[in-house]
Amino acid sequence: MSQKTVIEAVREAMLFEMRRDPEVFIMGEDIAHRGGVFLATDGFVDEFGEDRVIDTPLAESSIAGIALGAAINGKRPIAEIQFADFVWPAINQLVGEASKVRYGTNGRKNAPLTVRVPYGGGVRGGLYHSQSIEVLFAHTPGLKVVAPATPYDAQGLLVSAIRDDDPVIFLEHKKTYRLVKGEVPDEEYTEPIGVANVKREGSDITVITYGLMLHYTLQAAQALSEQHGVEALVLDLRTLRPLDRGSICEAARHTGKVMIVQEDTPAVSVSSEVSAIVAEEAFYDLDAPIVRVGPPELPPMPFSPVQEAAFMPSPETILESMHRLAAM
User: What is the mean pLDDT of the segment spanning 287-316?
Assistant: First the structure.
């Protein structure tokens, strides 16, 4: 085992797969000689050459479209969208086309395409570098959406995504890149797409979350235990499409009290779907209404540090909501 940050784990996963499979290549803005805006591909062009590490124009529709065409024809492209906020020009290629390849060809074709998307706030990115865009892709049948929060999950799930025969939107929270560290195996391993993971055991309340909010939730759960003697079970979704319905309902039934924490605005969101799953399949096991924690309904994330902090859920606001739920 080695200590790695999330960005180091992402980098290792891509290196491993590019060395293992010559059909894997990477494309995106500034990823070759600059190594990417977050340096995830620093040095790749020296090892693999410009045929497999391709700098593209500032045209996300072309990045997604070329990658999709290559995937349909037997390659395994990793397409990087520099920031989640820039993904909108690629929506038709991903939502309108990539998601339909297997269904539209009656299984004769597939699209083994991985799209890496740095997302999320807390880094003073302001209106155009802080968005959470997961719900748009998670809504679409035919796409898989992965959102790891730890180095271990990032590396194992990215290897699985690259090997998957369907298009995968791989979401990487920017704030976790160098902030979050953890033990990662030195040898090859994968983590299964579509399987949630209990990150903390507890018997009083269940908190379901993903991404950066996992770490804030774990901090809040520790404080809840120390200050109030209440033990929270924390479930990390890890995959947002397909959701792990079995683990969600099992965690809900275990405590009878459920809270969902997300950075994205709550309306028509991942937390909406998780709430619906719990209500449909575990309603009679609940001892309190389902609670959702998220930011206010505002179009963008503010740039001002004070306003950004007020916009995003924090360990303190999560702790407050946990305590209220436990008291119900």
Answer: 95
pLDDT cut 90: percent of the chain above it: 98
Q: Are residues 151 and 280 in the same domain?
A: no
* DSSP one-letter string for 203-242: SSEEEEE-THHHHHHHHHHHHHHHHH---EEEEE--EEES
Q: Are residues 308 and 251 in the same domain?
A: yes
Query: Is residue 16 assigned to a domain?
Result: yes
Over residues 117-154, the pLDDT tens digits come to 999 999 999 999 999 999 999 999 999 999 999 999 99
Number of domains in the chain: 2
Of 4, 81, 11, the closest CA to residue 42 belongs to 11
Q: Check whether residue 127 and residue 202 sit in a common domain.
A: no
- Catalytic positions: 129
Considering the domain architecture, whether residues 224 and 296 belong to the same structural domain is answered as yes
Write out the residue range of the structural domain in which residue 278 sits.
197-327
Residue pair 169/94 in contact (Cβ under 8 Å)? The answer is: yes
**Residue 219: pLDDT band with limits 50, 70, 90:** very high
The model's pLDDT over 107-119, given as tens digits with 9 standing for 90+, comes to 999 999 999 999 9
Q: Is the pLDDT of residue 161 over 90?
A: yes
- φ/ψ (deg, to 5) at 26: -120, 140
CATH of the domain at 238: 3.40.50.920
Per-residue pLDDT, 300: 86
Of 159, 184, 209, which residue is a domain's last? 184
Looking at 184, 218, 235, the residue that finishes a domain is 184
Q: What is the 8-class DSSP label of residue 81? A: P
